Structures are given as structure tokens and as C-alpha cells.
Amino acid sequence: MIDIMTYANPSVLADVDWLKANLGKSGIAIIEVDYDPKLAYEQGHIPGALLIDWRKDMNKPDERDIIGPEEFEKLMSRLGVSNDTHVILYGDYNNWFATFAFWVFEMYGHKKVQILNGGRKKWIDSGGELTKEVPTPRPAVYKVEKVNYANRVFLDELLREKVGKADLVLVDVRSPAEFTGEITAPPEYPNEHAQRGGHIPGAINIPWGQAIREDGTFKSAEELKQLYASKGVTPEKDVVTYCRIGERASVTWFVLKHLLGYPRVRVYDGSWTEWGNLVRFPIERQR
Amino acid sequence: MTSADDCIYPSDRLYLVEQDLWIKPLSDNVYRVGVVKPFLFFVGKPHKITVRQAGTLAKKNTMLAVLSNPRADAALLAPVDCYILETNQGLTPELLVKNPYEEGWLANIRVEEPLTKAVDSSAAAEKFAAINAERGVACLETLADYRFTVFGETCENILTQVGDFISRYLKVGESLHVITTDPATEVDMIAYAERTGHKLLEIKKIGKLLHVIYMRAV
């Protein structure tokens, strides 16, 4: 609890104990964001929690992109979330996809959204109640007022900006084996590959998990500052995070942007599955 | 009792299908509880098992145990309010995988209300068969270290991907459960093992899917 107070923007985190004491309170929507709902949400979730199935709900069905503002409005409406609802996100894979969803909620200007610190793991480990009952929310009215792309960077922008800019730092948050090109995906979900292994030239490797404690919660602000500063990722830089499909990159984005308050941090969600598939693009392997 | 998907449900006990648990009465309101075998094939090889501490109360729907690996923290929930009397002190992931029905038991519990939903092994086999089908689970002899679901336009394509997976991720002695559909045939899968020198531990067709387990040997 004390650590939380030292974060730049502590209001983005919800605490497990706080949530236990506030379950069922009106005006709050708890949403589990899963990559694999069968093994997670369907096996037991926080009472009253709704489900966002990351693959189906956060992505467009055809072209590779996250859902647009209209689809986001529809999703919110279906989940019974209105513009004023206090949303608390958590999920499987150490909150990877919940944090990705947070990034999307922020893009579409949702006012009050938080990440449950420690996610599903911490909730379960601390004996939190679970249920298999699926709530049926009453559809709500939701309107995206303004889209804010300040936290997202596309390939063409990255290429334009990178040239001749020494203060842009690329943080590759994948595992060292992915960074060096030994593997192109973690073995737990190997079906989303790039043609080539390696990393974007000049990127530095700081695996996302280095920001997380054993119990799944974020490290203290002091520890985090030390971790990133020691690798040259400092607040005055223009920081871009990437991984393989953007989910782990959003965890590091969340840490740098909200917990440490870096002014300019963007997710390159095209990530390695874009770069590593491009023809005649430079790739670095060993560093 | 063995069901069509080759999962075993011993007939000397009862089952709580909704919770993926088996229970064995020890005395009045006291049961030994454990997890059914197909659940292990659903979650994959656990790296860690957490069982709620002895001497504590598990409220209905809260965790009795959690099986963890890099893919999931899969919770097993208490069917009703119950006290944890004792936990299996020697329990390891290896022991659980070896025999979830005997040495791999989880805990002895005292229930606060009757377990009205418990069913016998034949009813359990029938109900689990539907759940396993929905989860895409079948029981094999070996619970492999990794699992890879692969569909390809050609059998060659499937085998190339299997080969990539083995060389990328498996250490010698580790195993891979391949789940595939046609056009891969049993003959091709066996020939592949002979050609590459990897050991074929198991091959089985269940429903429309072909399940093959290879062990990296070279």
C-alpha cells in the first residue's frame, strides 16, 4: 500500500484488498480480460466480473487492428459499461491482456479505469472468492467522445521518427531468447510467429517481467526507476515499447507511463510479428 | 469406468463434475478430495500446485487448489463451505501427474453441508465426456511437457511445424503432445519419428483429432 503512493499516477491501480471490500458496489464494472477464457474466466472469476475475450473482442475480425471507436462503443454497451462507470481490469497471463485493454480504454478516453494490481493470480492466491456464474448486464449507452492515439505508434511513423533521432529509445520487452532470435514466440502459445527471429536494430531488451514481483504485483517506484534508468530508459527520452503482438509491450508502457510518469511512451503494437515479417528490413540478433 | 475419450474415473468414489474433483468419503462429512485426470490434460503439466492451508475454511466457490504453469493459474473451487483438515504434504507436480486418484490427492476436507451434486463414476464419465469434448481434451498415457495444436493444408506442412517446435523448444528427454487433424495420418506420424530419430511415445485417434506424443531423443 505504501509503495502505491509513490507511483506517479497511483489512481490507475486497484488493490486486491480494496476490491474484496467493495465487491458488488454499484457504479463499478469488474472485467476479466483473457487470452484463454476457457482456462481462466470459465474456470472461475471474481463474482460479478464480466469477460472480454481478447482475441474476439479487442481485435477486428478481418484486418489486423484493434477495434475502432464504434466497435468499442458496442462492446461497452454490451458489457453494461457507460462513460461514467468505474472499470477495473484484470486477467490471465499476469494481466498482459488486461493491460492491453487498459491501453485501449485510454485511447478511447474512458475516464476511470484501473488495473487490479497482481491480477487473477494475486486474487486467487489471497483466497479471493470466485464463481462460475456469468452476469447478464443491462446494455448501457456509451459514447466515445475523442480518440487519442498519443500512446500508439505505427510502423511508418516509427521509421520516419527513428531516422536521426538519438533520443528515441526502443524497448523490446520479450524474453532474451526471443530478443536474440533463438525462438520467435513463447512455447505456451506458439501459433503466432514471424518469419525471422531477432529484434529491431538498436532496441534494448528489458523483459516485461522484470517490473513484476513474485506475487504478480508491480515493483515499487524506486525499484522500477532504478531498473529502467540503469538501461538508459529515462524520462526525457521518447520511449517506444514492443513485444510480439503488443500485449507484453502494454505492461511496460503502463509501468513507464503511469507508474513512473514518463511523458512520452508509446506502444508499437505491430511489434515483432510485423517487423519480423517485412521483406528487406534490417534485423539484429545477438547483442 | 473409462469413457469414450479414454479418461478413467475409478468406481470406488464419487465425482463433483462442476468442480473437476473426485471425492472419497472417509467418515461423516469428511472426504478426501482430488482432481480428475482430464483436468490435467486441459491445463497442461503443472509446474506448481498450491493447496489451501490446513486449518482454514474454504468458502463455497473459493479456491481449494490452484494448478499453475506458464499458460494458466487454473483454480479448483470448493463445492460448498468446507474446512481443510489436512493437505497432502508430499504432493509434487510429478506425483499429481503420475496418479491424481491416489498419491496425487489434494486434501482431506470436512464439509459444512451435504454434497448433493456428487455422482458415481458412470454418471461422471458421461458428463465429463461432454465437457472434455468442449474443452478439446482427451486423456493419454503421457502428460507431455508441451502441447502444440497444428493444422496444415498438407501433411508435410504439419510435420515441418512439428519439427520446428521440437528443435526450438524441447530439450532432449522432453515430450510434445501434437494435436492435429487430417490430412496427417498415423502412418506419416510414425514415419516421421523413424526419419528424425525422435521417440514416438503414443499415437491415438480420438474423435476427429489425431493425438501424437513425441519425445526429443536427439
Automatic annotation (TrEMBL), chain B:
<feature type="domain" description="UPF0033">
    <location>
        <begin position="170"/>
        <end position="210"/>
    </location>
</feature>
<protein>
    <recommendedName>
        <fullName>UPF0033 domain-containing protein</fullName>
    </recommendedName>
</protein>
<dbReference type="Pfam" id="PF01597">
    <property type="entry name" value="GCV_H"/>
</dbReference>
<dbReference type="InterPro" id="IPR036868">
    <property type="entry name" value="TusA-like_sf"/>
</dbReference>
<dbReference type="Pfam" id="PF01206">
    <property type="entry name" value="TusA"/>
</dbReference>
<dbReference type="InterPro" id="IPR033753">
    <property type="entry name" value="GCV_H/Fam206"/>
</dbReference>
<dbReference type="InterPro" id="IPR001455">
    <property type="entry name" value="TusA-like"/>
</dbReference>
<dbReference type="InterPro" id="IPR011053">
    <property type="entry name" value="Single_hybrid_motif"/>
</dbReference>
